[in-house]
Design a protein that fits this description.
heterodimer, A: 259 residues, alpha/beta, six-stranded parallel β-sheet, four-stranded parallel β-sheet, 9 helices, 20% strand, B: 271 residues, Rossmann fold, 8 helices, metal ion binding (chain A), phosphatase activity (chain A), metal-binding (chain A)
């Protein structure tokens, strides 16, 4: 096996990996501190689309995580830069709390549809509106296509099913900007000055976190918290570099074996 | 040499199957509106020696209510001539001892009165329209994700249909959504399932090549019928779009302006 270059960066998923809603996964604050003491760059990457960077930061700080805003990279950030690049005016089907990350983008007379995790907008009327726009030529941009996510009361539908439905209705393909798209991972690493094979991703979603990262050339560690279900590690090829109980065990492995 | 293309094939036809929404009428406020010429066209077909059946993926109302609406619009039509997905689904559920969680329009529920719905071990979705709320979809999703052997039945797989105020998302969109969420494939009951078309042909006592399907949905009406060995003709009413005439996989045997024109062409061949 070709020698790996030394590990320079760790990308860490948030929801389901470091915390579940407002509860931290046990032991993560300490594990994060130990990781920071090693000389690796850390970035928090997330497909969470209900929260702006600022509110994500506030939640993480309330949970006693040592995190700075510039270390957070979200699929909303990725969507915004695509809109700016193409000068689209979006119909934003995103939670109110996420609108803040689109401040300054012109939304009058929309000519593009942006879909995030927005249960309030996934009603028949709004989806019909989006459908008709796409049929008329508006591009469909998906912040991500997660199948489902974990809520306190169990699993709930993510935006993926609705994006898939609209793709079927219009015979169009969405542009997906979040995990597991390769560009999401390479964009997240771009200002850390390292290449994918010098980085590892830790997450609870086998396909979107680990599979996506490994496709981009990174190593992936799957944790058994959050939305993880028994057997998920067998659903991706190649399998995760490591499957372990939770974030603290992942950090242990990195400190012992990858540095 | 027998003329097997449209409209020449009409000479040897023994039966016609008509789609309803988009061919006979357009749905919308109240009863909707009859498409000009369609009431007369149905009368002409009934007066001819051709057998006639109606085949719909309508799942917002029971057959009785639905047929009553069409009669109010002036159509000569009875329940026994109409084939729709809900009764077909009920038969499948009973055959396989399945208990459904239903995500269907309220108006369709009576069709399932005789089905045991306790402790569901499958999900049935129909055209629930505004009842396709996030909450209702999530309920259906949680039933499926909690089953060891999840089964999803979709009453049709249409992408959209036309109402008087524009195009609206159909059941197929939500079928695809749940398929994606649960990583499963749904079983389609209704057009374009071959079993469904076959049940209509059986009722008519006809072989596929003796029947012609007329519909507005290129893939589900025309394509579905052709797949079973019938001829399929598309009308330019209802959900028809000009791009249908350049479709990558389905080529209608004929494309006509509306049902009235189709029926005139058929009957002209048979004098």
């Amino acid at each position: 096996m070709a020698g790996r270059r030394t590990l320079k960066a760790v990308l860490i998923d948030l929801s389901g990996t470091l915390h579940i809603e407002d509860t931290a996964v046990p032991g993560v604050q300490d594990a994060l501190n130990r990781l920071r003491q090693a000389s690796v760059a850390v970035k928090f990457v997330t497909n969470t689309t209900k929260e702006s960077k600022r509110s994500l930061l506030e939640r993480l700080q309330r949970l006693n995580f040592d995190v700075q805003e510039k270390e957070i990279f979200t699929s909303l950030s990725a969507a915004r830069s695509l809109l700016e690049q193409k000068q689209h005016r979006p119909l934003l089907l995103v939670e109110d709390s996420a609108l803040e990350d689109f401040t300054g983008i012109d939304t009058s007379e929309p000519n593009a549809v942006v879909i995030g995790l927005a249960p309030n907008h996934f009603n028949y009327q709004t989806l019909n509106k989006a459908f008709r726009m796409i049929l008329d030529g508006a591009p469909l941009i998906a912040i991500h296509k997660a199948r489902y996510y974990k809520r306190k009361d169990g699993l709930a539908l993510g935006p993926g099913p609705f994006v898939t439905g609209l793709e079927y209705a219009t015979d169009c393909k969405a542009t997906v900007v979040g995990k597991p798209e390769q560009t999401f991972f390479t964009q997240a690493l771009s200002d850390l000055g390292c290449s994918p094979n010098e980085a590892v991703m830790i997450g609870d979603d086998a396909r979107d976190d680990v599979g996506g990262a490994q496709n981009a050339g990174m190593m992936g560690i799957l944790v058994r918290t959050g939305k993880y279900r028994e057997g998920d590690e067998n659903k991706i090829n190649p399998p995760p570099h490591l499957t372990c109980e939770s974030f603290p065990e992942a950090v242990e492995h990195i400190l012992k074996n990858l540095l | 040499m027998a003329d097997t293309g449209w409209p020449g094939c009409s000479k040897s036809l023994k039966g016609v199957i008509l789609d309803m929404c988009g061919v006979l009428y357009e749905s919308g406020e109240g009863d909707g509106v009859a498409i000009p010429g369609s009431v007369e066209a149905v009368k002409k077909l009934k007066a001819s020696d051709l057998q006639l059946r109606f085949c719909t993926n309508e799942t917002q109302a029971t057959r009785e209510k639905f047929v009553a609406k069409l009669q109010r619009l002036g159509f000569d039509i009875s329940v026994s001539e109409v084939f729709s997905p809900a009764p077909a689904a009920v038969a499948v559920l009973k055959e396989r001892a399945l208990r459904p969680h239903l995500l269907v329009y309220d108006g369709l529920l009576p069709e399932f009165d005789s089905v045991d719905k306790t402790n569901p071990n499958c999900v049935v979705i129909g055209d629930a329209a505004e009842q396709f709320s996030y909450q209702n979809l999530n309920k259906a999703f949680s039933v499926l994700i909690g089953l060891d052997n999840p089964m999803l039945f979709s009453l049709g797989q249409g992408r959209y249909y036309k109402e008087t105020d524009g195009l609206k998302l159909d059941v197929g969109v939500y079928m695809k959504a749940l398929e994606y969420a649960c990583d499963l494939k749904a079983e389609v009951v209704g057009k374009p399932s071959p079993t469904f078309f076959q049940s209509v042909l059986n009722d008519m006592g006809l072989q596929p090549h003796e029947a012609l399907m007329i519909g507005d949905d290129l893939v589900n009406d025309v394509g579905g019928a052709q797949h079973c060995g019938m001829k399929g003709v598309q009308v330019r009413t209802g959900k028809y779009r000009p791009t249908d005439e350049r479709h990558s996989t389905v080529m209608a045997d004929g494309t006509v302006d509306n049902l009235a024109q189709a029926v005139d062409m058929i009957l002209n061949q048979r004098h």
